[in-house]
Amino acid sequence: MPEKLVHLITAVRPNFMKIAPLSHALRREPWARAVLVHTGQHYDLNMSDVFFRDLGLSAPDHNLEVGSGPHGEQTGQVMARYERLLMEERPDVVVVPGDVNSTLGCTLAAVKMGVKVAHLEAGLRSFDRTMPEEINRVVTDAVADLLWTPSPDADENLAREGVPPERIERIGNIMIDSLEMLREVIEADGSRERLGLDERGYVLTTLHRPANVDDPAVLARICGGLCAIAHDTPVCFPVHPRTAARLDAAGLRGTLADCGVRLMEPLGYTSFMNLVFGAKLVLTDSGGVQGESTYLGIPCLTVRPRIEQSAAALRGANRLIDSAQVAAAVRDVLQRGMPRSSPPPLWDGCAAPRAVASLKRFLFPAEQAAAGTPRSKRTA
C-alpha cells in the first residue's frame, strides 16, 4: 500500500485527548504518516504544552501560532494560515476534532482545496444556534467527507440533516481511549494527596464558556454558589485563563479565596484527571469533562441550558442547571446522589483502532473492495 499523509489538527485541551490516541494508533500503521498540526488556539503552557507531554505526543510538526481573538478573526486566521500550509504540504486527508474555531477553519481551508476531511466527534448538536460551537459543528459536518460519531444520538442528528449513511461511522468516545491509556499514571499521580483532599470528599469545578464567565452578573451568581458550597464541602477550582481574567476584572477572585474555594492554575491532563477520579461531584460547563465523569460514574452538574450530548447518551449521570441553582443543586446531589449506570456503547477505550480501520477503508477503497470489505462500515 502506498503511504498516505494524514494531518491531525489540534487546538485546545479537548482536542489533545481526542487526537493523542489516534496519533499513536496511526504511527503503528505502515501505510500512514501522521503529521500533527497545532493551530496555536491555546498558547498558555498549562493549557497546551503540558497536555502534549502528559499524552505522549511529540512536538507538533507545524504550529500555526494563531493565538486568541474574536471568533471571526480567529477562524479567519486559522483558514489563512492552514491554507498556506496546504499549499506547501498536501495531505491525503485532514482529521479535525471537536467543534472549536480551528475545527471549522481547517475544514474550510481543506475542502476549498479539494482535500478530504474526517470529522472526529461528528453529529453532536445542542440545537442552540447562539453557540459558536454549534455553528462550527453544523458547518463542519455539512462539508466533511467522513463523519466519526461518538453515540447513537449523533448518528440520528446527521440522518435528520440528510447526511448519506455511507459518510457516517460510529466509533465511540475517543477521549475514553486517552483516559484508559493513562489510567495507571492518573491513579498514581498524587495530586489529591498533595492538596490534602480526601477521596470523595470534595467538589471539582471548571468554568470557561462565555455565557458563564463573560457576564459579570452570571459569574457573580456562580461564585456565590461556590462560596455557599465551600462552607460545608471543599471546592477545588482549576481556573481557565479566560475565567481568571474575568474573575479579576469583576473583583471576584478575592471573594472566592476568602470563602475557602481553592483556586489553582490550570492543571495538566494527568493531574486534573486525578482530581476527577477522586471527586464526589463535578460542576462544569465542559463537554469533555461531562463525558469523562459519565464514563467514571461520577455525578456531574453542568452549568448550561443545553448540551450537545443527549441525556440518553449520558445516561442520567449528568444534570443541567442554571447559574442561580449551583448551591441548591450541589447540596441535593451531595445528599441524595445521582443515578449511576454503565457507560454508553463503544465508550470502551477502543475508538482509535476503529477510526484507523475506518480511515484505511476510506483511503484504500479499491484494496478494500478487492478484499470484500465495504468502503464504509457503520458500527452498531
Explain what the structure shows.
Helix 1 (13-26) packs across helix 18 (351-363), helix 3 packs across helix 4 (101-112) and helix 4 packs parallel to helix 5. The chain starts with a strand and ends in a 10-residue tail after the last helix. The chain has helices spanning 13-26, 49-54, 71-88, 101-112, 132-143, 152-160, 175-181, 183-187, 191-194, 210-213, 216-230, 241-250, 253-258, 269-278, 287-296, 311-314, 326-336, 351-363, 365-370; strands at residues 4-10, 32-38, 62-63, 93-97, 116-120, 146-149, 168-170, 203-206, 235-238, 262-264, 281-284, 300-303, 318-321. The protein has two domains: 4-174 and 349-370, 3-Layer(aba) Sandwich (Rossmann fold), CATH 3.40.50; 191-336, 3-Layer(aba) Sandwich (Rossmann fold). The chain has 380 residues and is α/β, with parallel strands linked by helices. It has a seven-stranded parallel beta sheet, with helices on both faces. Helix 16 (311-314) links the parallel strand 12 and strand 13 (318-321). Helices cover 46% and strands 15% of the residues. The chain is built from 19 helices and 13 strands. The longest helix has 18 residues, at 71-88. The model has no long low-confidence stretch (mean pLDDT 91).
Describe the secondary structure blueprint for this structure.
Elements (H helix, E strand, L loop, with lengths): L3 E7 L2 H14 L5 E7 L10 H6 L7 E2 L7 H18 L4 E5 L3 H12 L3 E5 L11 H12 L2 E4 L2 H9 L7 E3 L4 H7 L1 H5 L3 H4 L8 E4 L3 H4 L2 H15 L4 E4 L2 H10 L2 H6 L3 E3 L4 H10 L2 E4 L2 H10 L3 E4 L7 H4 L3 E4 L4 H11 L14 H13 L1 H6 L10
Parallel strand pairs: 1-2, 1-4, 2-3, 4-5, 5-6, 6-7, 8-9, 8-11, 9-10, 11-12, 12-13
Helix pairs in contact: 1-7, 1-18, 3-4, 4-5, 11-17
